[in-house]
Amino acid sequence: MGNCVLEKATIDIPQSFRRFVEGALLRVQIQYPALRFQVAPNGIEVAALPADHLDDLRKNVLHAVYREKIYAETLPLRQALIDAVTAK
Predict the structure, then answer these.
(1) CA-to-CA distance for 79 and 72, rounded, in angstroms?
(2) Three-state SS string across the chain, please?
(3) Neighbour-count burial for 74-87, b at 16+ CB within 10 Å, e otherwise
(4) What is the C-alpha separation between 4 and 60, in angstroms, rounded?
(5) For residue 32, is it left (φ>0), alpha (ψ between -120 and 50) or beta?
(6) Confidence grade of residue 87 (pLDDT, cut at 50, 70, 90)
(7) Domains of the chain as residue ranges with CATH
(8) How far apart are CA 71 and CA 88, in angstroms?
(9) Residue 27, Cβ density class (10 Å: 0-12 exposed, 13-18 middle, ≥19 buried)
(10) pTM score, two decimals?
(11) Confidence (pLDDT) at 2
């Protein structure tokens, strides 16, 4: 597969994580500025991806989506903690 380029690859994102895709894509685009990403109904599409990069990209995309989920879900807890610590 060495120099083979996939015209379009889709990284499937589980339904329960899809609401975190948009935020995660910001991080992913910083890691891969040469690639073009697009939100698809079932995940994320990547255009013109070297085939031998798909596994690494998939791992990083899924990690970024998971991190975005954790960030979003813990934000109220962190805010409450900050409010409690800084309240006088």
Answers:
(1) 11
(2) CCCCEEEEEEEECCHHHHHHHHHHHHHHHHHCCCCEEEEECCEEEEEEEEHHHHHHHHHHHHHHHHHHHHHHHHHHHHHHHHHHHHCC
(3) eeeeeeeeeeeeee
(4) 21
(5) beta
(6) confident
(7) 5-86 (3.30.70)
(8) 27
(9) middle
(10) 0.81
(11) 54
Say what the pLDDT of residue 5 is: 86
**Predicted confidence (pLDDT) per residue in 24-82, tens digit:** 999 999 999 999 999 999 999 999 888 899 999 999 999 999 999 999 999 999 999 99
Quick one: pLDDT at residue 1? Answer: 47
Q: CB–CB of 46/8 below 8 Å?
A: yes
